[in-house]
Amino acid sequence: MTQALVVGGGAAGLAAALELQRRGVEVRLIEATPRVGGVVQTEHREGYLFERGPNTMQGKPTLRPFLEANALEPLLVPASPASRRRWLWHDGRLEAVPMDPLSFLRTRLLTGRGKLRLLREPFVARGDASRESVDEFVRRRLGDEALENLVAPFLTGVYAGDE
After folding, report:
1. For residue 26, how many other CB atoms are within 10 A of its CB?
2. Please, are residues 111 and 145 in contact by the beta-carbon 8 Å criterion?
3. Strands 3-7 and 26-30
4. Per-residue pLDDT reduced to its tens digit, 88-134
5. Would the pTM count as exceeding 0.70?
6. Least C-beta-crowded within 10 Å: which of 34, 79, 87, 112?
7. CA-to-CA dists, residue 106 to 97, 99, 101, 115, 120, angstroms
8. d(C-alpha 19, C-alpha 13), whole Å
9. 41 to each of 10, 20, 38, 54, 65, how far by Cα in Å?
10. What is the maximum alpha-carbon separation in the chain?
11. Where are the alpha helices (DSSP H) in the chain?
């Protein structure tokens, strides 16, 4: 029997192990931490549910057959209309992410200085895209506050990136 070693029990490692197993391969999965799931983690705190790490799945054509083949489809929870409103934990409280210009002026996620810094964005010179990380790009174009308080939480939450 063919054998395979899968290194890492994150979403990709678990999916690879399941697919290999489905194909009749004897799989051994090793994970460096005490739990599988990678950066995906759910935390319950003070009556709220916090999703740490990626918490969305795009409707790619290959996703549903994979979920069906692994008896995971019944676990899918479609997003409710309320999920269109985004929230961030900031300075010890939940803050709504501004979705329009007026709410942007009122948000506590950025100081007045941070909001003024955003207004400079159209006048910021282009950088060298081949040598610039997402972190560097956002910091240069939008400033430190926008990076730390708006962009970084979504990069880590949706894409499991670390800027």
Report:
1. 10
2. yes
3. parallel
4. 889 999 999 998 888 988 999 999 999 999 999 999 988 887 888 88
5. no
6. 34
7. 10, 11, 9, 10, 19
8. 10
9. 11, 25, 8, 9, 24
10. 64
11. 11-22, 63-69, 101-106, 112-119, 134-142, 144-146, 152-158
Token pair for 90: 């900031």
* Residues near 30 by beta carbon (within 8 Å), at least 6 away in sequence: 5, 6, 7, 8, 9
* Bridging pattern class, strands 48-52 and 41-45: antiparallel
The DSSP call for residue 74 is G
Tokens for 158, please give them: 């949706």
- Distance (Å, rounded) from C-alpha 5 to C-alpha 141? 43
Amino acid at 130: S
Task: Tokens for 91, please give them.
Answer: 């300075």
Q: Give the per-residue pLDDT at 163.
A: 45
Note the Cα 17 to chain centre separation in Å.
Answer: 22
Distance CA 25, CA 3 (A): 6
Tokens matching residue 30: 């090793």
